[in-house]
Amino acid sequence: MEVDQDGEVDGDLLRSPSRDEEYPALERQPSYYNPLPTFVLAKGEQKTYKQQYGDMYFLRLAKLKPAVETIADKEWRDFEIAGETVRRVDRVLDVRQGELCWVAGTVYMDMPLKPNILDDISKDHWISAPPPREKYTSPGGQDQIMLEDESGRLRLIGTPLQLAMLVTGCIIAVMGTENANGDFEVVDMKVPDLPWQPQRWERDESYTISTNGATGSKRKSGSTPQLPEGGKVAIVSGLSISGEDGDSLTLDLLMEYLLGEACGPTEQSKVSKISRLIIAGNSIAEGTPLALREEDAKKASIKKYGYDSSAYNPAPTLRLDDFLATLLPSIPITLIPGESDPANVSMPQQPIHPAMFPRSRNYAVLPGSTEPGWFDSATNPFEADIDGWRIMGNGGQPIDDVFKYVEGDERLDMMESLLRWRCGAPTAPDTLWCYPFQENDPFVIEECPHMYFVGNQPRYETMVIDGPEGQTVRLISVPKFRETGELVLLDIDTLETEIVRFDVYDGKS
Predict the structure, then answer these.
(1) Positions in the chain short of pLDDT 70
(2) Which of 449, 31, 33, 388 is nearest to 223 (CA)?
(3) Per-residue pLDDT tens digits for 143-181
(4) pLDDT given at position 122
(5) How far apart are CA 109 and CA 104, in angstroms?
(6) DSSP assignment of 80-130, as one string?
(7) First-to-last CA distance in the chain?
């Protein structure tokens, strides 16, 4: 028997209710929720893959170059070394040997171990494909850092580069001089840093309030909604539902906790403060085909067109649908797709189709409606305003790809770097698949979020970073629930976090 911090005995759950004791009716705390269409792609003929990916880098450079040049000009104006004053050059190819100057451009990491399209073409001649690499870094120091723009490319060397975290696609400004070998020796480096961040409730004209089972009215422009204190948002990732018996008990514990069925009155009152559940990717385990019997295998070998329904396993999606449908009458849910979920592979991943959820889709937004539904199947990356805070997150692919470029495994440092680069997926489209945008790069962060989370990470971590103009951002590394059994709770008033851990006694300890 365990006793919680309030002195409530968990064993009392097995005791029959007293006739004299009154139990107050609890209601789920309301939430102001406004999902943003930042990463929603066009549909039908407007979505095409005929354009070139190179346009994305030019769009990104055109957007972020003025920001990094403003910072560099402020820091390096009238800067002198050995009596020589640094000057700005507009293009990479305008750098002259022996002259102290600074220039801005896009970083390109020339790494021999990175995936190569020519290797993909030669796969037909392989006996077996090589295993995917955990890191792209070369132990022999063969990696090179390039700075490029529309004019050309320049190789960068120097101590500041060894201390900084850099990946392909980030925009930087470097100061230094070109040596006799044609390499640019970097003395100092600047990044765009965090963009402008407004105050809470400052950003939107109106919010939709989600109450217990219905959608309420919108607030008037300029007013601040009055919400009860102590509200929380629950974030979980990596459910990895396989449909097998092995993942049922822990999921049931999570479900009963969110419904208030696995705790006493004191804890139930706390759970009622959770106004929304965000599932941050990889809700379904990696797809594994069903084992075919000998006679089924013979039939499958004869079939030429279509797919073989006998090799499709519907159990994971049915189990996920049951899980969501059980929770939805009590709590609104935001579902973000991940790498293993039934959505498009390239970023930004579009919402999982409601046809995958025959029971849960009854709570989704109605066709033609402009207000969010109780069940919001969102994009990956995800961006929304929740209770006045700008929330931004993803299912983990951008950070996992950055991890391959750098030494170490400091996920929070990678998340901080992405925000200071003002780019949510800098390695796209180089090594992270994405849609070939031509007119706008949605991965460029134009407004600083108040909270940034990344799902499916090795462990739970959190910290707060500060910007040059008073910005503060809460970073949250959300672990895989299947491996850790951890649920993250975000306090909507203070943006502080706490962990709720679920575990099943295996009889060994």
Answers:
(1) 1-23, 117-130, 203-228, 245-247, 287-312, 506-509
(2) 388
(3) 999 999 998 999 999 999 988 999 999 999 999 999 999
(4) 57
(5) 16
(6) EETTEEPEE-SSGGG--BT--EEEEEEEEEE-TTS--HHHHHGGGG-SSPP
(7) 17
> What is d(CA 110, CA 92) in angstroms, rounded to the nearest whole number?
17
Long-range pairs for 43-50: beta carbons < 8 A, 24 or more residues apart:
47/435, 49/435, 49/436
Q: What is the pLDDT of residues 343-379, one digit of tens each?
A: 999 999 999 998 899 999 999 887 777 788 899 999 9
Tokens of 344: 């498009």
- Per DSSP, 360 falls in state G
Enter the DSSP assignment of 289. P
| pLDDT value of residue 9 | 45
Beta strand spans in 115-253 (E)? 144-148, 153-157, 171-178, 184-190, 208-211, 214-218, 232-236
193: left (phi over 0), alpha (psi -120 to 50) or beta: left
Position 450: which residue type?
H
> Which letter, b or e, does each residue of 377-415 get, where b requires 16 or more Cβ atoms within 10 Å of its Cβ?
bbbbbbbbbbbbbbbbbbbbbbbbbbbbbbeeeebbbbb
Q: What pLDDT does 2 receive?
A: 40
Q: Residue for token digits 């403003």?
A: 70
Neighbours of 172 (CB within 10 A): 24
Q: Which amino acid is at 86?
A: V
Helix or strand run (H / E) with residue 335? strand 333-336
pLDDT value for 5:
41
Whether residue 240 contacts residue 480, with contact meaning beta carbons closer than 8 Å, is answered with yes
Q: In angstroms, rounded to a whole number, what is the distance separating the alpha carbons of residues 293 and 300? A: 10
Q: DSSP label at 245? A: G
Handedness of CA 256, 260, 265, 267 (dihedral sign): positive
For residues 282 and 237, is the Cβ–Cβ distance under 8 A? yes
Count of C-beta atoms within a 10 Å radius of residue 462? 19
